[in-house]
Amino acid sequence: STNLQMVKRTLGLKKFTVIVPAVAVQQLDGLKKTEKGARDAIRWLERELGRGNRWLRAQKEGEAMKVEGREYPRQRERKDWDRFQLLECLHYFISRGGVTLLTGDPDLL
User: Fold this and answer.
1) What does the alpha-carbon distance between residue 46 and residue 79 come to, in Å, rounded to a whole number?
2) What ranges make up the beta strands (E) of the chain?
3) In this model, does residue 39 exceed pLDDT 90?
């Protein structure tokens, strides 16, 4: 998967901590039965997180911040809801001093 390669290259720099948003893990989990790339990414993430890679970690509980002044979508509007979950994660880390978003999702750009 190209996105997985992008993450691996970034980790290889050993300059940045890559935080995997919970919503990204949920999306990969939902795709793993039908998408080989998602299955490979989940396996790789589990292996690296299990090894304690210091440059990689999953988003923790509480590492999200409401986005003020925006109307939230309904949870059943899955794609929009997921986007807001990502925005809350980004908002949290931006408020703590900065963040760079690595994404292969053209809808987010």
Assistant:
1) 24
2) 18-20, 56-58
3) yes
